[in-house]
Amino acid sequence: MQDVRTFRCKDLGLECEFEEKAESENELMKRVEGHVQTAHQMNPEQPEVQEKIRKAMK
Question: Is 1 a residue whose pLDDT tops 60?
Answer without folding.
Answer: no
